[in-house]
Amino acid sequence: MQKAKVIRGDHPIRGTACATRRKKAQLAYRASLYECLVEAAVKGDARQVKKLLAVGAEVDADGELSDCFPLDDLVDTPLGAAAGAGHLPVVKVLLAAGADIERRGGYPTLPPISHAASQGHIDVVRYLVDQGADLENPGYAGYYDCANGPPLLQAACCGQLDVVSYLLDRGVDVDGCDCEGMTALDWAFKVGYPAVANFIAGFPARREANALAARAPGKLRRATAAI
């Protein structure tokens, strides 16, 4: 009696094992592409970023791919990496490809606008705001504490005066605080940026003076402008 041939791939156990290996290999490939995309974003290589996206690199680590990058690995998002390094052309490419403008990542765990704000990349901050970034999206307040705080606090505790000025002009709450009750003014004093602290401390008075000047005749307007 002739024995029936068993095709190796049709064996239920072997077939399952093969499928599992294929799935792991595919996931490893996706993870490798993602890491390459983050690296290209950090370097500001817009051409390489476009190539990686064209071959299937994912702009955000979702689902199974996110399990390859646990929080302890401190892997930033491609958009966060580009924003933190100040590479505006790459930021534009990634947003056009569908990157999540609010996704947090890296160290400390921040949304892209906070990475840009903490490093003083005002052009990137402006662009992200124009694209709808949340100015109140919390993250870790600087590199000195694990308290939660929005972009203004990140800029203040890293001494980024231009970004602080821009965010306040955009209407961000000057008295906004983190989960420890620390404001941008508190952080600027704590970390040691007196110029930033003095600017924040004087902002309410300047805002009120500017509002009065807008409604005042010429002589009063010149007087309030000197405050």
Report on this structure:
The chain has helices spanning 12-43, 46-54, 78-85, 88-96, 112-118, 122-130, 151-157, 161-169, 184-191, 194-215, 218-225; strands at residues 139-140, 148-149. The protein is an all-alpha fold and 227 residues long. The chain has one domain: Serine Threonine Protein Phosphatase 5, Tetratricopeptide repeat. A two-stranded antiparallel sheet has the order 1-2. A hairpin with a 7-residue loop joins strand 1 and strand 2 (148-149). Helix 3 runs parallel beside helix 5 (112-118), helix 5 (112-118) packs antiparallel against helix 6 and helix 7 (151-157) packs antiparallel against helix 8 (161-169). It is elongated, with a radius of gyration of 24 Å. The termini are far apart.
Short description:
The chain is mostly helical.
How many strands, what sense, and barrel or not for the largest sheet?
A: 2 strands, antiparallel
The backbone outline, from C-alpha atoms, is elongated
- How far apart, in Å, are the first and last alpha carbons? 104 Å
Structural class: mainly alpha
- Portion in beta strands: under 5%
Number of strand segments: 2
> Strands of the biggest beta sheet: in what spatial order?
1-2
Roughly what is the average pLDDT, rounded to an integer?
83
The succession of helices and strands, N to C, reads HHHHHHEEHHHHH
Radius of gyration: 24 Å
Domain count: 1
- Fraction of residues in helices? 55-70%
* CATH topology term: Serine Threonine Protein Phosphatase 5, Tetratricopeptide repeat
CATH homology superfamily name? Ankyrin repeat-containing domain
Which CATH first-tier class would you pick?
A: Mainly Alpha
